[in-house]
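Lab notebook, design round three. We kept the backbone fixed and only want residue identities now. Task for the bench partner: fill in a sequence for the structure below.
Input structure tokens:
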């Protein structure tokens, strides 16, 4: 059996990983063409995520119900689309994390696809919290100190950067939360980021040991 298809993922986790890395690489030029490149990359992430969910009818339906509206709202301006798109985007990415992790731990074989899926989940966590921070700042301005006083694109870039700094517990301190809600989100992200690494490493090591025994 092909190692890339045995998990039910196909090659999609590899593409998702590429798109997520591209999203991070585009941040220095996020404002080009009004943020179109970043939105297109996010759109590609949503499409690839729906493909991941297509392995089963039930997950495909949920993926489509969440992903298509989230993808559409990426290109619709206005306050309401920003809020609704952010909520649906977070829900879509959380669902995809569930689908990927279920596949990783359901199949007791470590392959390039399972490794990519595991890395994708970790990177998606940063995007999820970046979107959550953006929603919070949008609904309650001033929740974070040190943000650029510029466009929405610059705000998104700053909060995505802050999200990964928090996820990896680097804590540079150039941007930091002020309100109680922002602090609660930041603490939750830092804890989940570290717990994920511990659980992931333990799970992968366990799978590798079982592979060697067989």
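Proposed sequence:
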């Amino acid at each position: 059996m092909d190692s890339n298809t045995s998990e039910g993922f196909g090659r999609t986790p590899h593409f998702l990983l590429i798109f997520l890395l591209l999203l991070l690489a585009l941040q220095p030029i996020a404002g080009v063409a009004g943020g179109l490149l970043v939105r297109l990359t996010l759109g590609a992430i949503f499409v690839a995520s729906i493909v991941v969910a297509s392995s089963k009818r039930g997950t495909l339906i949920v993926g489509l119900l969440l992903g298509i509206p989230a993808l559409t709202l990426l290109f619709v301006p206005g306050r309401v689309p920003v809020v609704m798109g952010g909520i649906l985007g977070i829900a879509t990415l959380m669902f995809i994390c569930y689908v990927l992790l279920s596949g990783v731990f359901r199949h007791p074989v470590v392959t390039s696809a399972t490794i990519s899926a595991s890395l994708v989940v970790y990177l998606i966590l940063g995007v999820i919290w970046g979107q959550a921070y953006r929603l919070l700042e949008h609904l309650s301005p001033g929740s974070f100190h040190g943000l650029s006083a510029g466009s929405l694109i610059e705000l998104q870039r700053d909060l995505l950067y802050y999200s990964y700094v928090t996820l990896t517990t680097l804590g540079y301190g150039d941007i930091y939360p002020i309100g109680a809600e922002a602090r609660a989100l930041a603490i939750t992200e830092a804890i989940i980021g570290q717990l994920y690494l511990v659980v992931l490493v333990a799970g992968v090591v366990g799978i590798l040991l079982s592979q060697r025994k067989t």
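Keep this in mind before ordering anything: Helices lie at 12-25, 36-53, 57-73, 79-106, 112-139, 152-167, 180-213.
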